[in-house]
Amino acid sequence: MRLSYMIAVVSLGAVPVSAQGTAGAPAGAPVGRSAAGSDSAGPVLTLADALRLAHRNNPTFLQSVAARRAASASVRAAYGQLFPQLSASLTGQYQASGQLPFSGSFLGAGSDIMQSQYQLGVNYTLSASTLLTPAYERAVRDASDADVAGQGEVLESAVAQQYVTVLEDQAKATLQDSLVTDDQAQLELARARVAVGSATPLDQQRAAVTLGQQQVQALQAHNLTEIDKLRLFQQLGVAQPAGVRLVDAFPVRMPSFPLDSLLDLARRANPQVNALRAREHAADVGVHRAEGQYTPTLQVQTGVGGYTFQYTNDNFLVGAAAQQVASQYGSCLTLDTIGRAAGLPSRTCGPSTLSPAQIAAIRSSNRQFPFGFQSIPRSITAVISLPIFNGFQREQQVEQAEVDRANARYNERARELQLTADVTSAYLTLTTSVRTVELQEQNASAARQALALAEERYRVGAATFLEVTDARAAYERAENDRISAVYDFHKAFAALESAVGRPLH
């Protein structure tokens, strides 16, 4: 889990307490509520929970995941091109009777026609481009995987930054609540001193104005906390539940890992750099694939099929057959008459009409549509083709592929240079933040002691209320600066993790 690998906790510091004051409300408690307010019953959101929610629901991140699925489908399709392509078709046709023009003549039939045909085809094409496409698509898929990892790191960094921002808002709101409590105590003290004549009514009015101004600042601090919570849940991709509480506390310490090891880790593990390397590899394969257009292409086709042909009017075929039988019988009689006149023996002629069995056979043979298929003779075709000149299109595609490869290398080099700068600057910022926290803690401690001393002097009448007001303003600035320094450290740590591209254990 991010930000959880540091040790040596630094507390937010004690809040000054007046004679009647309390230590202050918990982080995020609204003005006037106690530590056991209604927010304490709300759901708890840790940073680990927030990161899991973001991975499951952030729309931008889910888009990169969907793009990875498309890349996987492209890999399957590329491997599919190495196998024969199968196709199947079934055709039906109806043709009304009438005259149809054919090669300058007119053909026709006295019956409507129904036809059907099926075809099962196998087509296999093999080329250098087909063989190289799977390697290209795998490289693109690897780049998509790295893109998903990179988007995940960017998302986690943004969520961690916003989570820490909300914690910072809550800490500052807690400070404002404690100052409201302290100002209420100072107002009561001023009223008591006015009542006994040891202070002027002006001190009481100043204390009332200070309390009112502090209540406004506390209200604005809580409003900023709620706004930043809404922005956090916007990044998570879910609606904000009522009364949600952010409770993680992160320690501060000087980083124990050297800069050189971070740079080496970033160069090996940063997903964005790995994505650019994968795209450079894909572009290199793309050059070889484009050059494959200069090699021959083999295409083999074969298949099986069948057809049917049926007249809708069976009587059309029966009439045609009967007419043919009658014609043959008439021709036989004519030849027999001529032969007898020539002294030849008499010939026997067949029947002059169709028998019922013949008529039934004709009708049965006509009933083919739609599935009484007759096989079409099988054929196999093999073609080897080699384009000789296609208007310099191959040359243009090869040149474009080489330019894409060069651009991919330039992008990778630029990202590596940016990576070095990002990691180095984030590391320097982190180490500076640790020292800043130490100094701001010293400043806040001194301001806290000065405020306590001013309040005690005012309580015994040795100082004016203006001195208390000045000391209180100095303490508020110092404590705000200390809180900002603490959470700036956590933000710097998240930025360093983002620059490296992985959590830092």
**Tell me, what's the shape?**
elongated
- Look at the structure and give the mean pLDDT: 85
Kindly state the number of beta strands. 9
Low-confidence stretches: 1-39
Q: How much beta, percentage-wise?
A: 5-15%
Gyration radius (Cα, Å) is 46 Å
Please explain how this structure is put together.
By secondary structure, the chain is of the alpha+beta class. It has a domain at about 40-80 and about 130-295 and about 390-500: Outer membrane efflux proteins (OEP) (Up-down Bundle), CATH 1.20.1600. The chain has helices at about 45-55, 60-80, 130-195, 200-235, 260-270, 270-290, 315-340, 355-365, 395-460, 465-500; strands at about 45, 85-95, 100, 105-110, 115-125, 245, 295-310, 375, 380-385. The strands form 3 sheets. Strands 2, 5, 7, 8 and 9 form a 5-stranded antiparallel β-sheet that branches. A two-stranded parallel sheet has the order 1-6. Helix 2 packs antiparallel against helix 3. The chain starts with about 45 loop residues before the first strand and ends in a 5-residue tail after the last helix.
